[in-house]
Design goal:
heterodimer, A: mainly alpha, ABC transporter involved in vitamin B12 uptake, BtuC, 11 helices, B: alpha/beta, Rossmann fold, 2 domains, four-stranded parallel beta sheet, 8 strands, 44% helix
Chain lengths: 275, 314
């Protein structure tokens, strides 16, 4: 037991501290029905890193971060401009297109770099097991600032996702939302990989939608699910010696199954959040 | 630490049995030895005998450049008395962060418990200039040196010396085991050179540039690769170039390792009338090589000699 803690303490800390903000943003994302926007933004950010690596920068040099950040900004602009009222072109479709094109472009770019395939796989599953304390500190600091902005402007951001009326200057708030969202996703993808980031965003939010109607309760349920999923995933990763990120993703999947089944048995329809 | 030892060792035995990794009976093991790759583990086992418990981090079927880290790796490194790595940047992508997390001072660089095999062999293909555009070039030279049996001999010597330093009471046992290992290897080497002598200066195609040391020892030419540059997946243009040289020079053998894309090799072989030969740097990576380092080389030599002997015959 002591040894398990010794080995898993940094991944555990990362998985307890960092997903808090992801769960909250997940509630927004699920409500807006832009589920795959995080995958798309993460992929666009990864494309930025690919370009930086091709230009000869090291994977963790500041230029690489700058490239991936500016690509994320471009992605944010794209998603802001495509939030149209035109029902013929659902935004989800555009998000999907951005995702696959960014992924394919990454494959093209890295086909000329050594072991590019393996690098791409690494961005997918991440290396949460080997997270360094300094990394957790840096990302937690950035997350705290972003969370503060979200708290300060919660009226505008909530109106944006939940209505009933859009805030004044909705376009700019939308842009700010995507920029902050992109920062969070890029930060966490660096630690946990794309799969784990997606799971922390979406699974707790969907679980919460099964059992609760009000935003604060959904947030609490989401945090609870994320915490339980993390602990169960990390414990089984240690116990059965499994790749850590994938184990957490599967634990969250099981949590969703249990929540869904329980909600189904209780016969409670998952009502849409009203305000 | 010792009270952890038996429990951990049991776990190791179980894991090793499942994974087909070599291991000693933990009951009277005095040293916990971790090797990054299975061929180093196999030699450590041959030298250490029942005085060591050996585990390998990478599986024999895994690409040694890219190993997925798992919690048990940190546990193993944390409890290790010695770590044997290839060095020469083969494990640079995955070993350093694991070592950071394991925090084991016995394995610090320069400590007797940290063995870098590359320090006792003379490296081939050391680049004069470093240039990323040439693919996955290793600054210290080609890291696949264990495919030359004489390099295996040198590494066995290093392991015997270091294990003797770490457990002086057992030093004589290690020396005796080394002598046995060398005697077997030397006898086999003569046999191997005889088997491959008729194939001297024949050319063989390989997927990745894994075999320069093997080729040098047995006077073969393994200098055509399906990868256009080391670590870069085969491109149509490069495959076409390789295939036309195969046809022109009647090259009939393509060697491929377990973690490489066999389909690509099969396609090339089908188009050129060649055969695909399953090669591997690690004992256990191909069926029939589980016995150890010498058994692995025995398999490589015999299967290649057979393939080259039938070459050209209808």
């Amino acid at each position: 037991m002591m040894e398990a803690l010794q080995i898993m303490k940094w991944p555990l800390l990362a998985c307890l501290l960092l997903p808090g903000l992801l769960v909250y943003l997940g509630l927004h994302v699920v409500q807006r029905e832009i589920i795959f926007v995080d995958l798309a933004l993460a992929q666009v950010a990864a494309l930025g890193s690919c370009v930086a690596v091709l230009l000869g920068h090291e994977a963790n040099a500041w230029q690489t971060y700058a490239w991936s950040l500016s690509f994320t900004l471009v992605g944010a602009v794209i998603f802001t401009l495509t939030r149209t009222k035109d029902r013929r072109i659902p935004q989800e479709a555009l998000i999907g297109i951005v995702y696959v094109v960014a992924a394919a472009a990454g494959i093209l770019l890295l086909s000329h770099s050594a072991h590019g395939d393996e690098e791409l796989r690494r961005t997918l599953v991440g290396e949460v097991l080997l997270v360094q304390p300094a990394e957790i500190g840096k990302i937690f600091g950035a997350f705290a600032v972003i969370a503060a902005i979200h708290y300060f402007f919660r009226r505008q951001f909530l109106a944006l996702s939940y209505g009933p009326t859009l805030p004044a200057g909705a376009g700019w708030w939308d842009f700010l939302f995507y920029v902050l969202f992109g920062l969070v996703v890029t930060g966490f993808v660096h630690v946990g990989g794309v799969l784990l980031t997606f799971s922390y965003l979406i699974v707790p939010a969907v679980c919460a939608a099964f059992v609760a109607d009000s935003l604060p309760v959904r947030l609490l349920v989401g945090w609870l699910i994320a915490t339980l999923g993390s602990v169960a995933g990390l414990a089984s990763s240690y116990r059965f010696d499994l790749p850590t990120g994938a184990a957490i993703v599967c634990a969250l999947g099981v949590a969703l199954l249990i929540t869904g089944a329980t909600a189904g048995l209780r016969g409670k329809p998952s009502a849409r959040l009203k305000r | 630490m010792n009270h952890h030892l038996s429990l951990i060792s049991q776990k190791f035995v179980l894991a090793a049995a499942l994974g087909g990794i070599l291991t000693a009976t933990a009951a009277h093991a005095t040293l916990n030895v971790v090797a990054t790759t299975p061929e180093l583990a196999a030699i450590a086992q041959a030298i250490g005998g029942d005085r060591v418990a050996v585990t390998s981090l990478a599986k024999p079927t895994e690409d040694p450049h890219f190993v997925t880290p798992k919690p048990s790796f940190i546990v193993k490194l944390n409890h290790a008395d010695a770590l044997i790595e290839g060095g020469a940047e083969l494990e640079v992508g995955w070993l350093p962060p694991l070592l950071d997390n394991a925090r084991n001072p016995k394995l610090a660089l320069g400590a007797p418990g940290r063995l870098q095999a590359a320090t006792v062999v003379s490296m081939l293909e050391v680049p004069t200039t470093l240039d990323r555009s040439k693919g996955d070039i290793h600054a210290m030279g080609n890291p696949h040196f264990m495919t030359d049996p004489l390099n295996g001999r040198a590494v066995a010597q290093l392991i015997a010396e270091r294990l003797g330093t770490l457990a002086p009471k057992e030093a004589e046992v290690f020396k005796a085991n080394l002598a046995k290992f060398n005697e077997r290897l030397d006898a086999k080497l003569i046999e191997w050179q005889k088997s491959l002598a008729p194939c001297a200066s024949k050319r063989v195609v390989a997927y990745h540039n894994t075999w320069p040391y093997f080729a040098q020892r047995f006077a073969l030419k393994v200098d055509l690769f399906l990868e256009p540059k080391p670590g870069i997946p085969p491109t149509p243009a490069n495959l076409a170039a390789v295939m036309s040289r195969m046809k022109a020079e009647r090259i009939r053998t393509v060697i491929v390792e377990p973690y490489q894309n066999r389909k690509t090799a099969e396609r090339v072989a089908a188009e050129t009338g060649a055969v695909v030969l399953d090669f591997c740097q690690f004992p256990g990576g191909v069926k029939g090589t589980e016995g150890g380092y010498i058994e692995l080389l025995d398999y490589l030599v015999q299967s290649l000699a057979k393939a080259l002997a039938t070459e050209g015959k209808p």
